[in-house]
Design a protein that fits this description.
Blueprint: H1 2-36, H2 43-68, E1 71-73, H3 80-92, E2 99-103, E3 110-113, E4 121-125, H4 126-131, H5 134-149, H6 152-233, H7 236-248, H8 275-279, H9 286-295
Length: 298
């Protein structure tokens, strides 16, 4: 059951990433055609800009996330039990132990960050240590290690950057339409007017579509990491129980923001259960996650 879950999530994630890349190339070509009449003239510079944006984001993402979260690095003497638990889990997975950080916040939560397996970090809140049992904390740590080992942190950094590229592209198109739209519409009449309308609709809708794709990828990676954590600890109930406690806790995480929310093991924003917030949630339904974990036990 665990291996089947991992295979399904891996395939689904690959399809979503491919769709995201095709989406960016597609809208770049349409915008380029509307603006210049050449579908490739605008597309290639956009891809080069996206590459530069990705490299810059990779260079500073880890330190920026830890700083925004007010996370402080801790060593073995500060919390030996937590340190040894993470060390043992890392050894069992055959990977380098990530750096350990602590966030002074009573809301239980945790996240992993870093673009490489050897330069990663895991941050946990004081609330997680205070409110969860040892087996539950190990389940959370195993979940975050799975994100690191399978480079989910790098993947989600890439996806966030791609969303930013789409948003900037759409904004640029809307701002420049006034200067270029008339000239193009006079040149090709009705056919170009239709293309111009299609480009305008894409400019308005593409940031929303890109955001939904990002959220879908984020949710898939959470299911994947859950299954990997169960495989590592051989005790799915530990993580299942941890997710129940974290989701039942009503205290919002004060240091969380929309730029970092997708990194946490559970949605850090509490008390918002409307359709709008559910649709734009960075995490799958916790009850569904618990259900899948407990199904793996059978």
């Amino acid at each position: 059951m665990v291996y089947a879950q991992l295979t399904r999530n891996r395939i689904a994630t690959g399809v979503l990433i491919l769709a995201f890349l095709c989406f960016i190339v597609g809208i770049s070509m349409i915008f380029s055609e509307v603006q210049t009449g050449d579908p490739f003239l605008f597309a290639f510079p956009t891809l080069f800009f996206a590459l530069f944006y990705v490299l810059m984001s990779f260079a500073f993402s880890k330190s920026a996330v830890l700083m925004m979260s007010n996370a402080k690095k801790i060593e073995e003497q500060h919390s030996p039990e937590l340190f040894h638990a993470l060390e043992n889990l890392a050894i069992s997975r055959g990977m380098t132990m990530p750096l350990l950080y602590l966030i002074e916040d009573t809301a239980p939560n945790a996240f992993a960050t870093g673009i490489g397996k050897k330069h990663a970090a895991i941050a946990v809140t004081t609330g997680l240590l205070q409110k969860l049992e040892k087996a539950e904390i190990e389940g959370v740590l195993a979940h975050e290690l799975a994100h690191i080992q399978h480079e989910d942190t790098r993947l989600m950094t890439l996806v966030v950057v791609l969303v930013g590229v789409v948003t900037l592209l759409a904004d640029f198109f809307l701002r420049s339409m006034y200067f270029h739209g008339r000239g193009r519409s006079n040149r090709n009449g009705k056919g170009n007017a239709i293309l111009l309308v299609a480009g305008l609709l894409l400019a308005l809708l593409s940031p929303l579509i890109a955001q939904l794709l990002k959220l879908a990828i984020s949710r898939k990676r959470e299911f994947y990491a859950d299954a990997e954590a169960a495989l590592t600890t051989r005790y799915p109930e530990g993580l299942a129980s941890a997710l129940e406690k974290i989701s039942a806790d009503t205290e919002p995480l004060e240091v969380a923001n929309h730029a970092t929310a997708h990194l946490y093991i559970a949605n850090p924003f509490k008390g918002k259960t409307s359709f709008f917030h559910t649709m734009f949630s960075t995490h799958p339904d916790p009850q569904e996650r618990v259900k899948r974990l407990r199904t793996m036990m059978t």
